[in-house]
Amino acid sequence: MTSARRTRTAARRRRRRQRRGALLVVLALAATGVWLHRERSAGGTVPVAAAAASAAPTVDPDAQLAAALQDGGGHLAVAVLDTASGASAAYGTDRFVTASIVKVDILAALLWRTDGMLTDDQRSAAALMVENSDNDATTDLFGQIGGDEGLDAANAAFGLTGTTAGTDGYWGLTTTTAEDQLRLLQLVFGTEGVLGDESRAYLQKLMGLIAADQRWGVSAADDDRAVHLKNGWLPRTAEGAWVVNSIGRVVHDGRELLVAVLTDGSDTKEEGIALVESVAAAAADSLTSATPSATVSPTASPAVSGAAASPVAASTQQ
């Protein structure tokens, strides 16, 4: 084994040891009925208690995730899906401001409207929007899809029932749920839906080329940090708190997972990132530990409603 490979293996093992304790908190939530796993059935997806989804192994106590939840100063929602088995889990039903994770939604809407046929200028703007989280490019493309009405129309076609576009050009004030973001990820990384194969491949490509300084978030749940993602962060200046979100595709314990984490209320961006990463890692561990692997296609998870989040200044949206 090469030195580099030994280093990567050791790093993976350290991350798993650090996350084992977080499982205790997640599984405790399952025991109270707050955290639900969903598995495929003939009639679609049905919620079942996480502990009953399959026999989960005993884990060592550790307050790592509990400390992140208590000390992060924010509230959260998370949804995770195993693309092979279709098993999924969700925690939290509130709506959150999207900040820049909406940029995946905007590009999906543009591809849907154009049937995947983008001009060179649109492709340049799309790359800036997704890879670099460029706001000017986003504002341009948001206008091209018809603004809030265009995004709402696209989301209706996508089956995003808990997402409402920000008005008056304030695309970063779009509100959404974790489960809607999971549906959006299924549209991008699945094989069904209103987008064509080339459109999905294009979205996947851009999400795999995120700028190096933005490759945090759900990447904490990926064994090798080779991840497709989009993050969003937004200072809520009126309230002195931060929105920090992350969505994407990871490979965890050899299984492809789609993960969406939404948070707000953290005192700093750094605290928000730490919270998102802790929750993403714990969610991935929980799902792979509590459910068997399989080789079936995923199904869409059910809709969840929640209270709308309050707006922020458009000039700060990221």
Automatic annotation (TrEMBL):
Keyword Thylakoid: no
Domain Beta-lactamase class A catalytic positions: 124-263
Keyword set, alphabetical order: Hydrolase
Top-rank taxon: Bacteria
Record InterPro entries: Beta-lactam/transpept-like, Beta-lactam_cat, Beta-lactam_class-A
Residue span of region Disordered: 287-318
Molecular function via GO: hydrolase activity
Thylakoid in keyword set: no
Official protein name in the record: Serine hydrolase
Organism: Kitasatospora arboriphila
Source taxonomy: Bacteria, Bacillati, Actinomycetota, Actinomycetes, Kitasatosporales
